[in-house]
Amino acid sequence: MPISDDTRTLLAQPIFASLATIGPDGHPQVTVVWVDVEGDAVVFNTAEGRKKHRNIEADPRVTIMAIDPENGYRYVELRGRARMTTAGGDEGIDALSQKYLGKPYPFRRDGEVRVQIEMDVESEHWMG
């Protein structure tokens, strides 16, 4: 599904988004992520073995909510499915870090394997 211009404009900013995944017990798990848009996919990144990585591996259905920083009553909810790869994982986190921090990712841990995640948006809902 094509991402709307409003969503592209919102996600082009260095705003924090909430990512919901489904845990092994069926309950949602929510975490804050850095996001960007590439083509019609929302991209984010994590490290192999983290909760969101394990949850997406088991069930690729995800939801992202992003709030307009100029109007907290205006937000978008994106639902879809995630695809993950370690190819480009280091470059992906550095690109996001450049957007959010203005420098390459400074929080790497020894032995950490970065995972690049692309979310194929299946529905987009705006409020406000």
- Globular, elongated, flat, extended or rod-shaped: what is the shape? globular
Major sheet description: 7 strands, antiparallel
Average pLDDT, rounded to a whole number, is 97
Strand order of the largest sheet: 2-1-5-6-7-4-3
Specify the helix fraction band. Answer: 10-25%
Number of helices: 3
Number of strands: 7
Estimated radius of gyration: 14 Å
Structure explained in plain terms:
With 128 residues, the protein is α+β, with helices and mostly antiparallel strands. The chain contains three helices and seven strands. Helices cover 22% and strands 44% of the residues. The longest helix is centred in the C-terminal third of the chain and has 13 residues, at 89-101. It is globular.
Considering the chains and any ligands shown, give keywords for the structure.
44% strand, 3 helices, alpha+beta, 128 residues, seven-stranded antiparallel β-sheet, single chain
